[in-house]
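Exercise 7.
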Amino acid sequence: MPKPPALPDLLRAHGAWILLVGSIAAGALGADPELLVPALMAGTGHVGAFQALAAGLRPGRGTLVIRGTLLALAAPALAVALGASTTFLLFAASALPAAGLCVLLARRFGALSLPVIATGCLAIALAAATVACAGGVEPARAALLPLVLTPFFAWRSHAAGRRILDGEAGTKQALRSLGLREAGYAALWSLAVGFLGA
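Solution. The predicted structure, written as tokens, is:
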């Protein structure tokens, strides 16, 4: 069995960052306006955790790991201090095992396999539930956001991965075009889910 390709540099994985920002936006759209700042602080915790994880997968990035970890801890603490219910921490914590499983599967099957993409998208989409819950949305309703976001994110990400593997995005221009198109789909879906869930 051939060895799967090495893990990509997640700090440069623009698609993952776009999905993360889209998830945070989807959660924020349903937030109580008075809790919008704590909600965004809760989402910032996911940004820090993603940075710490991404940097930790590559050697020589200890400073970025420390910064990301500090942000992952400080931002949710600030959200609580600003009035967010601590219930959102359950959603934030649930992203950790999903992200860990994603990394384990990626090392075994390669970064573009469907199980890896699905678990990675779930870990990212949980940011929507974290933000919504911190913004005053009932936990049961907040939990619906990643359930709706994840299948779409995984479908589009897997389709883009297949195009890359098949050589359809062999040039820099083709890859940029593919990335912009997928970013547009992700943004539109995130906004639609956020508005419908608001």
